[in-house]
Every structure is written in structure tokens, then in C-alpha cells.
């Protein structure tokens, strides 16, 4: 006991140094870098719109994450909160809010376009369909980059997102194609020279020539007979 007190006393007596780092506030808003990328904007959007349900690291509404809530709000499914009987104009949250960042998350989406479409149509859960398209792209860029599915360089949009496939989450982050793909040109139709390739055209020509020869010979035969 004595040693314990002694040690406590000694620990207390160590002067606080300027280098002591405060515990990082895990719920602090992300700061934008000097030249923000699409995914950096997405981080901000995620913080303000998605974090309360999906966690600050995209881990989902885990028990551990809910401990960051004030004690009275930690049980989201209590009557009068977001359970089966929510507060007036409130909404019910499913008991499982899935992770959106982590090894197995997003595996059900084939590519970034599908993820974008889902976010735009279904999230945030309580107000689906309210996000601006640009916000959906920023969130898609953020989630894709945080999951290591994309290197984050460039900008995701409807011309390239379908090419960013989510098939192999263990592969190194993919890059977008260097230039936006030009739609493949429709094959130019070169009209084939008459009779060159089409056998039926050849038959028609031969028949026409034969008919002409027949008409001419009939004509001359008649002239020969009458003359
Ligand atoms: C009110 C809580 C809530 C908020 C806020 C919310 N989500 Fe969700 N999210 C859910 C729930 C619940 C599901 C599961 C829905 C289901 O399975 O039908 C889900 C599912 C998802 C999924 C699919 C995950 C998977 O693998 O099934 C994505 C992606 C997603 N949310 C992204 C977002 C984004 C981005 C935002 C912010 C714009 C957001 N969510 C805000 C509750 C929320």
C-alpha cells in the first residue's frame, strides 16, 4: 500500500511537459488539406451526414461506437428514440447498421457506379434520395478510397465509375483510366461494289444481260425476217 501511495505521489510530482499530446477527439470534424481531392470532400460529408450511424471510421453502429454518445443516448432502440416506437416524426433504425469501411464492407456492390447509385437512392437512411448528385460522388470517392479499392487520384463520375470494379478488395488500389473513355466508334459501313461480294447481285446482272441479249436478238431476227 505504502509503495502504491509513494508511486502515485511520485507520478504526480512529474511536471507536465509541453509535449503531452491530448487524447485525439475521435468525433472531431476532418480538416480539409490545402488542395482537397474529391474523397477529402467526401470525408467532410461523411462526418456530417453518415457518422452518427456508421461510426467515425465507418465501422458501423457498434456497441463501442455508441459509447461516444451521451449516456442517455447510447441505447438507440429505446422506446421514444429510434426503436419500434420512435419519438414523434422520428425514425426506427435497424438494430444492425453495417460497416461501410473495413475488410468485408462494400463487397455487395460490383463497382463505384453501383455504390454511388445506392447512396443517392437509399442514404442517409432517414432521408433517402435527398443528397445532391455531387455529394453522392464525393461520398463514393471517400468510401472507395478508404476501403483501398481506389488510389483516390482524379475524379469519379458517371463516365468512369463503372470501370472501378470492387471485385477483389485485397488487390492494390486501382487507378482510373488515364483519359475518359471515348465511346467506341460505330463501324463505318463501306458500300460493297455492285456484284463484288453479293452473289445475288451477280445473278441479277447476269439475268438482266441475258434478257437484253434476248431482246436484241429477237429485234434483229424480226428485222432480218421483214427485210
Ligand atoms: C440513420 C442511420 C443511417 C445514416 C445517417 C446513414 N446510414 Fe447508411 N445504412 C444505414 C442502415 C440501417 C443500413 C442498412 C440498410 C439495409 O440493409 O437495408 C445502411 C447501409 C448503408 C450502406 C450499405 C452497406 C452494406 O454493405 O450493406 C452504405 C454504403 C451506406 N449505408 C452509406 C451511407 C452513407 C454514405 C451515409 C451518409 C450520407 C449513410 N449511409 C447514412 C443507416 C444509416
CATH topology of one domain: Cytochrome Bc1 Complex, Chain D, domain 2
Which regions have little confidence, pLDDT < 50, spanning 5+ residues?
A: 1-15
User: Which band does the percent of strand residues land in?
Assistant: under 5%
Please identify the top-level CATH class of one domain: Mainly Alpha
DSSP summary: helix tally: 7
Count the beta strands: 0
Gyration radius, rounded: 36 Å
* Largest sheet composition: none
The CATH architecture of one domain can be named as Orthogonal Bundle
Oligomerization: single chain
CATH superfamily of one domain: Cytochrome c-like domain
Q: Outline, from the CA principal axes?
A: elongated
The end-to-end span amounts to: 149 Å
Percentage of helical residues?
25-40%
Question: Mean of the pLDDT scores?
Answer: 82
Q: Could you walk me through the main structural features you see in this protein, from its secondary elements to its overall organization?
A:
This protein is an all-alpha fold. It contains 7 helices and no strands. It has helices spanning 2-13, 38-49, 51-54, 63-66, 112-122, 133-146, 199-226. Helix 5 (112-122) packs across helix 6. The longest helix has 28 residues, at 199-226. Residues 1-15 have low confidence and may be disordered. Heme C binds next to helix 3 and helix 5.
Short recap of the structure:
This protein is an all-alpha fold. It contains seven helices and no strands.
Amino acid at each position: 500500500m505504502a509503495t502504491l501511495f509513494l508511486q502515485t505521489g511520485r507520478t504526480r510530482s512529474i511536471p507536465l511537459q509541453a509535449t503531452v499530446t491530448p487524447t485525439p477527439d475521435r468525433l472531431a470534424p476532418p480538416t480539409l488539406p490545402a488542395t482537397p481531392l474529391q474523397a477529402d470532400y467526401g470525408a467532410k460529408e461523411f462526418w456530417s451526414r453518415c457518422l452518427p450511424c456508421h461510426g467515425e471510421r465507418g465501422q458501423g453502429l457498434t456497441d463501442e461506437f455508441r459509447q461516444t454518445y451521451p449516456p442517455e443516448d447510447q441505447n438507440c432502440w429505446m422506446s421514444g428514440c429510434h426503436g419500434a416506437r420512435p419519438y414523434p416524426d422520428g425514425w426506427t433504425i435497424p438494430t444492425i447498421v453495417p460497416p461501410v469501411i473495413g475488410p468485408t464492407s462494400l463487397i455487395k456492390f460490383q463497382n463505384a457506379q453501383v455504390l454511388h447509385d445506392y447512396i443517392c437512392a437509399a442514404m442517409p437512411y432517414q432521408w433517402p434520395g435527398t443528397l445532391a448528385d455531387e455529394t453522392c460522388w464525393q461520398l463514393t470517392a471517400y468510401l472507395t478510397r478508404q476501403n483501398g479499392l481506389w488510389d483516390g487520384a482524379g475524379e469519379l463520375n458517371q463516365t468512369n465509375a463503372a470501370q472501378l470494379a470492387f471485385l477483389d478488395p485485397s488487390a492494390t488500389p486501382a487507378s482510373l483510366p488515364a483519359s475518359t473513355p471515348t465511346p467506341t466508334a460505330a463501324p463505318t459501313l463501306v458500300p460493297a461494289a455492285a456484284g463484288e461480294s453479293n452473289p445475288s447481285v451477280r445473278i441479277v446482272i447476269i439475268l438482266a444481260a441475258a434478257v437484253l441479249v434476248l431482246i436484241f436478238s429477237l429485234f434483229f431476227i424480226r428485222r432480218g425476217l421483214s427485210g
